Fold:
Amino acid sequence: MTTAAKYMTADEAVRLIKSGDHVYIQGSTSIPEVLVEAMARRGDELRSVTLYSGFAVAKGPAPYCRPEYKDSFLVDSFFVNNATRDWIARGYGATTPRFLGEVPSMFRDGTWPLDVALINCSLPDKDGYVSFGVSADVATSAVECAPVVIAQINKAMPFSYGDPVIHISKLAAAVEVDDPLVEVPTPVPTPAEVSIGNHIAEYIPDGATLQIGVGGIPNAVLHALRDHKHLGVHTEALTDGLLPLMESGVIDNSLKAVLPGKSVASLALGSRRLYDFMDYNDSLVFKDVAWTNDPFIIGRNPNVVSINSCIEIDLTGQICADSIGERVFSGIGGQHDFVYGSSRSQGGKSFIAMLSTTAKGISKIKPVLTPGAGVVTTRFQAQYIATEYGIVDLRGRNLAERARLLISIAHPAERENLERAAAERFGYSFLRLKP
Structure:
């Protein structure tokens, strides 16, 4: 068996893609843009190539999302990202609902056939192994299942330990590039977000294991944890907000039951500083999303604290996090998995954190969800809900009690309308509850 890499140009590499193939495109901040652009240049000659795409932050619209290529490339996304969002909204592409943690099983059992995987990898180590760095998530299973794996060998990709590693001899084609990864700016929390972060931090004990999302509120929570001790990380996304806590030793993973001493993630989203921190850092382990997001594995850690966001919530606790009305904006990601996983953890807590209104001043707490909105976290699973007006715990509360609690953390200008809606819906069981 040869151990040599099969280096070629991007245009030569994508000749391995045939009409009718099913192709996986790696996501996170590591879309293999050079390969994708080369594939798109074949749009006039290819037909019915199904493209699987998931969670990703792209540099811009996907080059294959062009009307003249509507029969060449058939986009099937299991997490709508910025590269394909408009294309899918216009009806050219499709999205398949699925928990992100269950996508690998769809590849492995053949529900979604795979012929080719396009990935973005680090330079090889001394033994000839390359890492797909910032994106183990779904890429691990796609590389396992696709007969043809085509990789960018990218100077900009960090080498991460864990599942996202393959020997360079296993690649059908390798293309040398120096293509910077997308960087996700670290948002500066607003005063309202700082308030939410401080509220949530008070509920987090020393020794907790964190799963935390992306944005101003998560960063505010992390900043408020700087005086905590012995925190752990078992999360879907590793972000810049975690760096100060890892560098200062606040995060030492010493009290975790699953991979103690290691910060565990499935993907990374951040700046070049984060990617450089990851490179050959054996305190970090990146794992297949089917493993990181398994609620039974999550729940083995004590004091799991999951912090996620949403688009809107109704008065019964139904949480929409993937769509704006009928328009699918993103996907489920790991919210459901970690909400459930935290409920299985001894001392576990889950938080849905949000500003009380949108940027346009529309209440995110609503009598009923917007028609067409999808329920990501059911009212049977909702626990702590946080806004800048406080935190309420819905666990064990009946529908009328939930409505009263949620109204108490809504924007003051919206509370009267929500009161009327709750009184009409729940009647005396709501009215007898004092504000």
Remarks:
- Residues 36 and 63 are 7 Å apart (CA to CA).
